[in-house]
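Before relying on records like the one below, remember that each one covers exactly one chain. Contacts with other chains, cofactors or solvent are not represented anywhere in the record.
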Amino acid sequence: MRSAVARGETLDQVLDRNLNELLQELRVAITGVQILFAFLLGLAFTQRFTSLDRFDVAVYTVTLLATALTTIVLIAPVAFHRLVFRRRQKAAIILVTDRLLVVGLALLVLAISCAVLLILDVVLGRAQGIAGGLLVGVLGVLTWFGLPAWARRTGAGSAPDEDEQGPPPEG
């Protein structure tokens, strides 16, 4: 409600705007997941796959499962929306979609990190694969979760409250 008042919007307008923003974020995330998932599904049917050692097969399995779970979690808001459509539950859709998107992003960091680990392990070696996978994982967690958590905690970049802005400019 505070956001609606601050922006001169009705509650329905805020809900519509929030849902549209979430949908745009989901579109970006799901595209990358679909590409990664397609790559992983095809990988198991290549000739080189049979030469992977147990470690690489285990990493492949974790990567495939993380990507499949990411796909399910990021598509879940579509099913949720469809099942509560026209029931005046847009706030519930936004709440559930927001939570699913965060979980999906966490799974996606895992999937991307494991994919990098697998590829670098096969191409460059185990130590380089582990280093690359860890680097990607840490950077993903820091930029996708740490940086936003820091901004929320410190209020960095927040619009000042109306009291702090002073009187509106004349003209």
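The longest helix spans residues 90-123.
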